[in-house]
Protein backbone atom coordinates (compact mmCIF):
# COMPACT_ATOMS: atom_id res chain seq x y z
CA UNK A 1 0.00 0.00 0.00
CA UNK A 2 1.25 3.50 -0.90
CA UNK A 3 1.97 5.60 2.17
CA UNK A 4 3.49 8.93 3.24
CA UNK A 5 5.49 9.40 6.45
CA UNK A 6 4.71 13.02 7.35
CA UNK A 7 7.28 13.33 10.15
CA UNK A 8 10.66 11.61 10.05
CA UNK A 9 14.21 12.91 10.59
CA UNK A 10 16.08 11.26 7.75
CA UNK A 11 19.35 13.13 8.43
CA UNK A 12 19.67 10.78 11.41
CA UNK A 13 18.86 7.61 9.45
CA UNK A 14 20.82 5.22 7.27
CA UNK A 15 20.36 4.94 3.52
CA UNK A 16 19.15 1.39 4.26
CA UNK A 17 16.13 2.95 5.99
CA UNK A 18 15.18 4.73 2.76
CA UNK A 19 15.40 1.38 0.99
CA UNK A 20 13.27 -0.47 3.57
CA UNK A 21 10.66 2.29 3.52
CA UNK A 22 10.51 2.24 -0.30
CA UNK A 23 9.98 -1.54 -0.26
CA UNK A 24 7.13 -1.07 2.22
CA UNK A 25 5.32 1.41 -0.07
CA UNK A 26 6.62 4.81 1.07
CA UNK A 27 6.22 7.34 -1.77
CA UNK A 28 6.95 10.54 0.17
CA UNK A 29 8.07 11.83 3.53
CA UNK A 30 8.38 15.18 5.23
CA UNK A 31 11.25 16.06 7.49
CA UNK A 32 10.72 18.85 10.02
CA UNK A 33 13.76 20.84 11.13
CA UNK A 34 14.70 19.58 14.57
CA UNK A 35 17.49 19.08 17.04
CA UNK A 36 20.60 17.58 15.42
CA UNK A 37 21.57 15.43 18.39
CA UNK A 38 23.61 18.36 19.77
CA UNK A 39 23.07 22.11 20.30
CA UNK A 40 24.36 24.16 17.38
CA UNK A 41 26.58 27.11 18.18
CA UNK A 42 25.60 29.60 15.49
CA UNK A 43 23.04 30.52 12.82
CA UNK A 44 25.54 29.31 10.22
CA UNK A 45 25.21 25.81 11.67
CA UNK A 46 21.50 26.03 10.83
CA UNK A 47 22.22 27.39 7.35
CA UNK A 48 24.20 24.21 6.60
CA UNK A 49 21.44 22.10 8.15
CA UNK A 50 18.82 23.80 5.95
CA UNK A 51 21.00 23.07 2.90
CA UNK A 52 21.09 19.44 3.99
CA UNK A 53 17.26 19.41 4.25
CA UNK A 54 16.65 21.19 0.94
CA UNK A 55 19.49 19.85 -1.23
CA UNK A 56 21.06 16.65 0.14
CA UNK A 57 18.17 14.61 1.58
CA UNK A 58 15.91 15.02 -1.51
CA UNK A 59 18.71 13.42 -3.58
CA UNK A 60 19.16 10.53 -1.11
CA UNK A 61 15.40 9.93 -1.14
CA UNK A 62 15.17 10.13 -4.94
CA UNK A 63 17.51 7.12 -5.22
CA UNK A 64 14.60 5.11 -3.84
CA UNK A 65 11.84 6.91 -5.77
CA UNK A 66 10.73 8.71 -2.59
CA UNK A 67 9.79 12.41 -2.65
CA UNK A 68 11.42 14.25 0.23
CA UNK A 69 9.78 17.40 1.65
CA UNK A 70 10.89 19.45 4.64
CA UNK A 71 9.96 22.18 7.13
CA UNK A 72 12.23 24.93 8.46
CA UNK A 73 12.59 26.50 11.91
CA UNK A 74 14.69 26.50 15.04
CA UNK A 75 13.24 23.75 17.23
CA UNK A 76 11.95 24.26 20.77
CA UNK A 77 14.91 22.41 22.30
CA UNK A 78 17.31 25.10 21.05
CA UNK A 79 14.82 28.00 21.25
CA UNK A 80 15.80 28.74 24.85
CA UNK A 81 18.53 30.85 23.22
CA UNK A 82 16.32 33.71 21.95
CA UNK A 83 19.15 35.63 20.29
CA UNK A 84 20.26 32.61 18.24
CA UNK A 85 16.61 31.84 17.43
CA UNK A 86 16.07 35.32 16.02
CA UNK A 87 19.16 34.98 13.81
CA UNK A 88 17.83 31.67 12.47
CA UNK A 89 14.29 33.02 11.90
CA UNK A 90 15.78 35.96 9.98
CA UNK A 91 17.64 33.52 7.70
CA UNK A 92 14.71 31.17 6.92
CA UNK A 93 13.27 33.31 4.04
CA UNK A 94 16.51 32.56 2.08
CA UNK A 95 15.21 28.98 1.78
CA UNK A 96 11.48 29.55 1.30
CA UNK A 97 11.67 29.27 -2.48
CA UNK A 98 13.25 25.79 -2.41
CA UNK A 99 10.82 23.38 -4.10
CA UNK A 100 10.70 20.77 -1.28
CA UNK A 101 9.92 23.22 1.57
CA UNK A 102 6.36 22.75 2.85
CA UNK A 103 6.41 25.48 5.50
CA UNK A 104 7.51 26.34 9.04
CA UNK A 105 8.13 23.51 11.53
CA UNK A 106 8.43 21.69 13.74
CA UNK A 107 7.86 24.65 16.02
CA UNK A 108 6.34 24.25 19.46
CA UNK A 109 7.26 23.85 23.07
CA UNK A 110 9.64 21.50 24.86
CA UNK A 111 9.62 22.52 28.54
CA UNK A 112 6.86 25.16 28.15
CA UNK A 113 9.20 28.05 29.11
CA UNK A 114 8.57 31.78 28.40
CA UNK A 115 11.54 31.88 25.98
CA UNK A 116 10.14 28.93 24.02
CA UNK A 117 6.76 30.70 23.83
CA UNK A 118 8.42 33.91 22.58
CA UNK A 119 10.25 32.07 19.82
CA UNK A 120 7.09 30.11 18.94
CA UNK A 121 5.15 33.37 18.43
CA UNK A 122 7.94 34.84 16.30
CA UNK A 123 7.76 31.77 14.05
CA UNK A 124 3.97 32.27 13.77
CA UNK A 125 4.64 35.83 12.63
CA UNK A 126 7.05 34.55 9.96
CA UNK A 127 4.50 31.94 8.78
CA UNK A 128 1.71 34.54 8.66
CA UNK A 129 3.84 37.02 6.70
CA UNK A 130 4.80 34.42 4.10
CA UNK A 131 1.50 32.50 4.15
CA UNK A 132 3.25 29.23 5.04
CA UNK A 133 1.83 25.96 6.37
CA UNK A 134 2.85 25.09 9.94
CA UNK A 135 3.90 21.83 11.61
CA UNK A 136 3.78 21.79 15.41
CA UNK A 137 5.74 19.74 17.94
CA UNK A 138 3.92 19.25 21.25
CA UNK A 139 5.96 18.38 24.36
CA UNK A 140 6.32 14.81 25.50
CA UNK A 141 5.21 13.05 28.70
CA UNK A 142 4.14 15.11 31.68
CA UNK A 143 4.44 18.48 29.86
CA UNK A 144 2.19 17.43 26.96
CA UNK A 145 -1.29 18.45 28.12
CA UNK A 146 -0.26 21.89 29.42
CA UNK A 147 2.04 22.51 26.45
CA UNK A 148 -0.62 21.53 23.92
CA UNK A 149 -3.12 23.90 25.55
CA UNK A 150 -0.57 26.74 25.55
CA UNK A 151 0.20 26.11 21.86
CA UNK A 152 -3.48 26.01 20.84
CA UNK A 153 -4.11 29.27 22.73
CA UNK A 154 -1.21 31.01 20.98
CA UNK A 155 -2.45 29.75 17.61
CA UNK A 156 -6.01 30.92 18.31
CA UNK A 157 -4.68 34.38 19.18
CA UNK A 158 -3.16 34.73 15.70
CA UNK A 159 -6.15 35.36 13.44
CA UNK A 160 -4.06 35.34 10.24
CA UNK A 161 -3.33 31.63 10.72
CA UNK A 162 -6.11 29.29 9.61
CA UNK A 163 -6.45 26.03 11.60
CA UNK A 164 -6.72 23.93 8.42
CA UNK A 165 -3.18 25.10 7.51
CA UNK A 166 -1.65 23.74 10.75
CA UNK A 167 -0.81 20.17 11.75
CA UNK A 168 -0.35 19.58 15.48
CA UNK A 169 1.83 16.54 16.07
CA UNK A 170 2.61 14.00 18.80
CA UNK A 171 -1.05 13.85 19.88
CA UNK A 172 -2.06 11.25 22.46
CA UNK A 173 -5.33 10.12 24.04
CA UNK A 174 -5.52 13.15 26.35
CA UNK A 175 -4.79 15.81 23.66
CA UNK A 176 -6.29 14.51 20.38
CA UNK A 177 -9.80 15.82 21.08
CA UNK A 178 -8.54 19.33 21.94
CA UNK A 179 -6.63 19.50 18.65
CA UNK A 180 -9.39 18.14 16.40
CA UNK A 181 -12.14 20.22 18.06
CA UNK A 182 -10.14 23.39 17.35
CA UNK A 183 -10.10 22.55 13.62
CA UNK A 184 -6.40 21.64 13.26
CA UNK A 185 -4.92 18.61 11.53
CA UNK A 186 -3.63 16.12 14.06
CA UNK A 187 -0.63 13.78 13.98
CA UNK A 188 -0.04 10.64 16.03
CA UNK A 189 3.63 9.77 16.45
CA UNK A 190 4.36 6.06 16.72
CA UNK A 191 7.20 4.95 18.95
CA UNK A 192 8.47 1.40 19.47
CA UNK A 193 8.61 1.42 23.29
CA UNK A 194 7.42 4.56 25.02
CA UNK A 195 4.55 6.88 24.10
CA UNK A 196 2.06 6.05 21.33
CA UNK A 197 2.29 2.48 19.91
CA UNK A 198 0.63 1.37 16.63
CA UNK A 199 -2.02 -0.37 18.78
CA UNK A 200 -2.86 2.83 20.69
CA UNK A 201 -2.97 4.77 17.41
CA UNK A 202 -5.41 2.23 15.94
CA UNK A 203 -7.57 2.59 19.07
CA UNK A 204 -7.62 6.39 18.60
CA UNK A 205 -8.59 6.05 14.92
CA UNK A 206 -11.47 3.77 15.96
CA UNK A 207 -12.59 6.30 18.56
CA UNK A 208 -12.10 9.60 16.68
CA UNK A 209 -12.49 8.60 13.01
CA UNK A 210 -10.18 9.45 10.12
CA UNK A 211 -10.90 13.15 9.44
CA UNK A 212 -7.75 15.36 9.66
CA UNK A 213 -5.80 12.54 11.34
CA UNK A 214 -2.32 11.34 10.25
CA UNK A 215 0.32 8.97 11.62
CA UNK A 216 4.11 9.21 11.49
CA UNK A 217 7.23 7.46 12.74
CA UNK A 218 9.28 10.48 13.89
CA UNK A 219 12.38 8.35 13.25
CA UNK A 220 15.25 10.35 14.74
CA UNK A 221 18.46 10.08 16.80
CA UNK A 222 16.79 8.30 19.67
CA UNK A 223 15.23 4.82 19.81
CA UNK A 224 12.64 5.01 17.03
CA UNK A 225 11.30 2.88 14.20
CA UNK A 226 11.27 4.21 10.62
CA UNK A 227 8.92 1.33 9.71
CA UNK A 228 6.29 2.43 12.25
CA UNK A 229 3.72 3.53 9.64
CA UNK A 230 3.75 0.12 7.88
CA UNK A 231 3.34 -1.41 11.37
CA UNK A 232 0.19 0.67 11.84
CA UNK A 233 -1.06 -0.43 8.40
CA UNK A 234 -0.64 -4.07 9.47
CA UNK A 235 -2.32 -3.46 12.84
CA UNK A 236 -5.34 -1.90 11.09
CA UNK A 237 -5.53 -4.73 8.52
CA UNK A 238 -5.51 -7.31 11.32
CA UNK A 239 -8.38 -5.46 12.97
CA UNK A 240 -10.40 -5.72 9.76
CA UNK A 241 -10.27 -2.10 8.54
CA UNK A 242 -10.69 -1.75 4.79
CA UNK A 243 -8.04 -0.38 2.41
CA UNK A 244 -9.86 2.95 1.96
CA UNK A 245 -9.89 3.68 5.71
CA UNK A 246 -6.22 2.79 6.12
CA UNK A 247 -5.20 4.72 3.02
CA UNK A 248 -7.04 7.83 4.26
CA UNK A 249 -4.84 7.91 7.38
CA UNK A 250 -1.48 7.01 5.85
CA UNK A 251 -1.76 8.53 2.37
CA UNK A 252 -4.81 10.67 1.53
CA UNK A 253 -4.72 12.84 4.64
CA UNK A 254 -1.03 13.85 4.55
CA UNK A 255 -1.36 14.39 0.80
CA UNK A 256 -4.35 16.69 1.30
CA UNK A 257 -2.60 18.66 4.06
CA UNK A 258 0.67 19.06 2.11
CA UNK A 259 -1.30 19.88 -1.05
CA UNK A 260 -2.18 23.27 0.43
CA UNK A 261 1.45 24.34 -0.13
CA UNK A 262 1.39 26.07 -3.54
CA UNK A 263 5.13 25.66 -4.11
CA UNK A 264 4.93 21.86 -3.82
CA UNK A 265 1.45 21.33 -5.28
CA UNK A 266 2.57 19.77 -8.54
CA UNK A 267 4.96 17.30 -6.87
CA UNK A 268 2.30 16.36 -4.33
CA UNK A 269 -0.42 15.85 -6.94
CA UNK A 270 1.91 13.41 -8.74
CA UNK A 271 2.37 11.14 -5.68
ZN1 LIG B 1 10.31 15.55 15.08
Order of helices and strands: EHEHEHEHEHEHEHEHHH
- Quaternary structure: single chain
Cα radius of gyration in angstroms:
17 Å
Average pLDDT: 96
Taking pLDDT < 50 over at least 5 consecutive residues as the criterion, the unreliable ranges are: none
CATH homologous superfamily heading: Metal-dependent hydrolases
Helix content: 40-55%
What proportion of the residues form beta strands (DSSP E)? 15-25%
Number of strand elements? 8
Shape: globular
Q: Class in CATH?
A: Alpha Beta
> How many separate helices?
10
What class, by secondary structure content? alpha/beta
**Strand line-up in the sheet with most strands:** 1-2-3-4-5-6-7-8
CATH architectural name: Alpha-Beta Barrel
- Counted up, domains total 1
CATH fold name: TIM Barrel
What bound compounds does this protein have? zinc ion
How would you characterize the overall build of this protein?
This protein has 271 residues and is α/β, with parallel strands linked by helices. It has a single domain, classed as Metal-dependent hydrolases (TIM Barrel, Alpha-Beta Barrel), CATH 3.20.20.140. Helices cover 44% and strands 15% of the residues. The protein has an eight-stranded parallel sheet. Strand 6, helix 6 and strand 7 form a beta-alpha-beta unit. Zinc ion binds next to loops.
